[in-house]
Amino acid sequence: MKYNFDxxxxxxxxxxxxTDGFRQYxxxxxxxxxxxxxxxxxxxxxxxxxxxxxxxxxxxxxKERLDRRIMGYSQVFDPAYYEAVSNWxxxxxDWSFPKEYLETSNGIIxxxxxxxxxxxxxxxxxxxVTPSYG
Length: 134
Hints:
The protein is mainly α and about 130 residues long. The chain contains 4 helices and no strands.
């Protein structure tokens, strides 16, 4: 597969955190605040909110899901998921783990909350340094 990563998709006006909400989110800015730089002068490198087009394979999978017409809660139950993850870990890191150790999460933030509760005692503190998720 070859993708055109040079094509920029303008996210302005689409309620994207990357373009429309970052000043309030990062700086707690109000409408009357002024900044030394214009929005278009910022180089934004947010992990999950980039301006690349979504690959056709992902769009096709989303369309297939939409055609089912039911959007209820989902989770991966297919055993092939563990195989794909464990094969990738083995190939790139020479690391393996038992299937029962694989946990899924609805996102990175919920996963971090769970992880902190798992590895920390109730009287311990956690320091999160910037840059990081809000």
